[in-house]
Amino acid sequence: MKTQDIVKLLRQSGLLISSKIQKNDNIAGVADNSRKVKKGNVFVAIKGFTVDGNDYIKSAILQGANLLVSEKNHKKMIFGETGYIRVKDARKALSLIAAYRYGFPSKKLKIIGVTGTKGKTTTVHIIHHIMQTLGYKVGMVSSIKAVIKNREYDTGAHVTNPGVIEIQKLLSEMVRAGCEYAVLEVSSHGIDQERISGIQFEVTVLTNIYPEHLDYHKTFKNYKQVKMKFIKSGKHQVISPKKTNLNILPGEFNNINVEASIKAVSHFGISKNKALTTLSAFKLPEGRLEELVENQPFRVVIDFAHTPDSLEKALKYLRKETSGRLISVFGCAGERDRFKRPIMGGISAKLADISIITSEDPRSENINQIIDSISDGAISCKAREFTLQNYKAVLRNCDTKFGNSKFIKIPDRKKAIEFAITKVAQKDDTVAFFGKGHEKTMNLDGIHETPWSDIEVVREYIKKLI
């Protein structure tokens, strides 16, 4: 890859505004983070949601970048023989350069993209399972992991789509491994930020659309437009049904995902009956209605539900499956949709006997204010608050069927889990932990990702109990 090749590529795409190239250097790689720049790289300066890559141009050049791409005019600050290209859209330019760097791998694969407010991850895993079981050479990228042949790759914390460069690299790995198909989980952020720009989709799947990420998209209308823009880009389009008669996986919502998956793979000649025969061996992805069994006398479930609709559906399913009390442990993320907080508090109050309201990635927000907002919804549904001081007396009589739903506020998630497992849960109860699911970190200050796993912490306290 040469400097002039990139200029030509951007000119042909209509993105080029101007260029200042001293030498036709070899470009060893591409980076959009100045800390990851290596000698001979092209650095694409992206203006992000909170950080502007244009502020780190000098750092990138000092790290060894020999070509800069930006929407801004930086001609006066270019050092020595560093090349400079100005473009109309830096995000699209990054996607195009990254695809070029890895040989446009999406053109060598038939790609299925799955988007939606919820159910994306499960649907991606179902599609991949069906195709792989039936002998198709298929790779997968979800928010949990990437799978290429028998190798698994971590796709990072708190992202549905890996970055542009990472996606193209993974697709190129699939091509090298002999894959002919790929299944990708696609988020509204990934679509809007051009992370999938340049990828050609054979099939696009929409699982559902509910209000979400309005902190970013501002309105539900904008959010829907982003999703539909992606769906319309596919050669074949699949829209999930709202109901199903299938009863293969736990919860109707998961069986609706099965229906969508079957429709998606049908475009590659897989019949419904063949697809269904593979699902007897399918296991839900990590952190999706995942049961932890350690000989404890009550049921323990980990689920990623973090929206009102997903929380409601999970609790309704668990309500039917529980002979004792249903205990819900959850929070709401900071710097994200504030409107959903009281709604989720109300949902838990209506469907769970006991709600333990705690942290879930508070980021830079005050955790107590987040919890108070959730609690307002529980109170509006006539749930009564209790404390660590009086919990024994309060929990003797707790049953939503008689309007006796209770809630407690415990900001520390680890202490909330300990309380639920060691102090509250009894024989025949179900205790469900929502919001974190498979995630391996928690953001407590808006900057740092602290190691965290609901699964590990919950298992730790179950083992202490037994």
What would you say this structure looks like, in words?
InterPro entries: Folylpolyglutamate_synth_CS, Mur-like_cat_sf, Mur_ligase_C, Mur_ligase_C_dom_sf, Mur_ligase_cen, Mur_ligase_N, MurE/MurF_N, UDP-N-AcMur-Glu-dNH2Pim_ligase. This is UDP-N-acetylmuramyl-tripeptide synthetase. Keywords: ATP-binding, Cell cycle, Cell division, Cell shape, Cell wall biogenesis/degradation, Cytoplasm, Ligase, Magnesium, Nucleotide-binding, Peptidoglycan synthesis. The protein is of the alpha/beta class. The chain folds into 3 domains: 3-101, 3-Layer(aba) Sandwich (Udp-n-acetylmuramoylalanyl-d-glutamate--2,6- Diaminopimelate Ligase, Chain: A, domain 1); 105-281, Mur-like, catalytic domain (UDP-N-acetylmuramoyl-L-alanine:D-glutamate ligase, 3-Layer(aba) Sandwich), CATH 3.40.1190; 290-465, Mur ligase, C-terminal domain (Protein-Tyrosine Phosphatase, Chain A). Helix content is 36%, strand content 18%. The chain has helices spanning 3-12, 57-63, 90-101, 120-133, 164-176, 188-192, 214-217, 220-232, 252-266, 272-278, 308-321, 340-351, 367-380, 391-394, 413-424, 454-465, and strands spanning 16-20, 29-31, 41-44, 67-70, 83-87, 110-115, 138-141, 145-148, 151-154, 181-185, 203-206, 236-239, 290-291, 299-303, 326-330, 354-357, 384-385, 406-409, 430-434, 441-443, 449-451. The strands form 4 sheets. A 7-stranded mixed sheet has the order 9-8-7-10-6-11-12, sandwiched between helices. Helix 3 (90-101) packs parallel to helix 5 (164-176). It is globular, with a radius of gyration of 24 Å. It starts with a helix and ends with a helix. The mean pLDDT is 92.
